[in-house]
Amino acid sequence: MEQTFIMIKPDGVQRGLCYGYGVWMVGKFGKGTYGVSGGVIEELVKLDESVLGLQVGDIISRFEKKGFYLKGMKFINVDRPFAEKHYEDLSAKPFFSGLVDYIISGPVVAMIWEGKNVILTGRKIIGATNPAESAPGTIRGDYAIEIGRNIIHGSDSAEGARKEIALWFPDGPANWQSSVHHWIYE
Ligand code: UDP
Ligand code: MG
Asked: In the chain, where does DSSP find H-type helix?
């Protein structure tokens, strides 16, 4: 099964688009990794100060409802070198430094999603890079206006997904299997 890296960018977090309904994610600013499986929060023992309850909603539920599996989730701030590494393929672009400023402007929700064709299908769920060209019904088409405030990231290839998952989740994905797998996949 394929895996992809999906990230709700700082504007998606700030606008409360991930505060709809769905599973609860409990995290901590700065550091910490907390897996969510089947709505059950794992590794609560790691929590200490600055605990926040974030109701992860509409964006994430689209991936869940489709039949993809959440295999990793973090709510974190990244620093400039980390954001530059994530977007290193775009380092020659004129918008690169503004893009890095944007990604480090607040916490992001970083995720691993797994499923058949999840890389390409995830890009379709997200929509075109420029929200002006994203079809209604896609995440960017429904929620965003500007290319530099397009609220979500998704890996664009198998190689990109592998690199991004390794960068953001060096400990690898969470280990769980959906009990309804055979009702989704034949
Ligand atoms: N971006 C931008 N201006 C542009 C092109 C891209 O600000 O002209 C930003 C935008 O936030 C985009 C990100 O850079 O999501 C990465 O660009 P890419 O071409 O990889 O688009 P994506 O894969 O996110 O659709
Ligand atoms: Mg890209």
From this structure: 10-14, 58-66, 80-86, 96-103, 118-126, 139-143, 158-168, 181-184
Question: Is pLDDT at 127 greater than 90 in this prediction?
Answer: yes
- The answer to whether the CB of 129 is under 6 A from ligand 1 is yes
Cβ(99) – ligand 1 distance below 6 Å:
yes
Q: What is the pLDDT of residue 21?
A: 32
Interface confidence: ipTM more than 0.95: yes
Q: Please give the Cα distance from 174 to 186 (Å, whole number).
A: 23
Third-level CATH fold of 2-178: Alpha-Beta Plaits (3.30.70)
Query: Could you identify the atom of ligand 1 that is nearest to the CA of residue 129?
Result: 25
List, in sequence order, every residue forming a beta bridge with 154; answer none if it has no partner. 6
- Domain residue ranges in the chain: 2-178
CA of 30 to the centre of ligand 2 (A): 24
